């Protein structure tokens, strides 16, 4: 189950009541009794991003914009928890840009408003959609802000290669998916499952990306997916 929406939670409960294993994949499903979890804590993703910023900025005081995504999503709540913890004792002034669905139109509006209200930002950290748009806007307007995403996607990787996005952490979602499938099979066979398996988080920038195995992040060539309704 790769979603934290109420519909996913309801679907998970139906499957659990039917005695089927349910694996929480990537986005922190808020449902009791899950069989196992294949994900990382997004608090750790944000901590990794802030630690990277402190390193590249040399510890000097910096101004950072923040655009996390939808307020009611579990992964956003985790990310903000990590942000609060990582900010403690740091010379970082945070400008919160607000919440919104992770779609281009909404995130573009939030990015524009954040940069309008805080034109002197040194860095902007956002969800992948916000970061992708912010990178284009910063390039076109000549803003001095550097952009990071607190998770990596194919588009973000392209912008890192092009020098538009500074960096993003990856939680190796392909590895998480493979682990989740293995856990589901083991659960169907009645095996005892570990509660949580998490890949190691790695920061990707222009230098580290050259040596990173993209197979941990991107689906293989020719990959395709069949979608079907879960049984009642």
Could you explain the architecture of this structure?
α2 runs parallel beside α3 and α4 packs across α5. The protein is an alpha/beta fold and 232 residues long. The chain has helices spanning 6-17, 42-56, 74-87, 104-117, 128-141, 154-161, 173-188, and strands spanning 23-25, 36-38, 62-67, 92-96, 123-126, 146-149, 167-170, 196-197, 202-205. It starts with 5 loop residues before the first helix and ends in a 27-residue tail after the last strand. The chain has a domain at 42-170: Response regulator (Rossmann fold), CATH 3.40.50.2300. The protein is elongated. It contains seven helices and nine strands.
Key descriptive features of the protein:
232 residues, alpha/beta, 40% helix, 15% strand, elongated, Peripla_BP_I, TMAO reductase system protein TorT, signal
Question: Tell me, what's the shape?
Answer: elongated
Oligomer: single chain
User: Which architecture name of the domain at 42-170 does CATH use?
Assistant: 3-Layer(aba) Sandwich
Number of helices: 7
Over all CA atoms, what is the radius of gyration? 19 Å
| Number of beta-strand segments | 9
CATH fold annotation of the domain at 42-170: Rossmann fold
Low-confidence spans: none
> Average pLDDT, to the nearest integer?
89
What is the distance, rounded to the nearest whole angstrom, between the alpha carbons of the first and last residues?
15 Å
Sequence of strands across the biggest β-sheet: 4-3-5-6
CATH class group of the domain at 42-170: Alpha Beta
Report the β-strand fraction as a percent range: 15-25%
Pfam family, one: Peripla_BP_4
GO molecular function: carbohydrate binding
GO cellular component, one term: cell envelope
Protein name: TMAO reductase system protein TorT
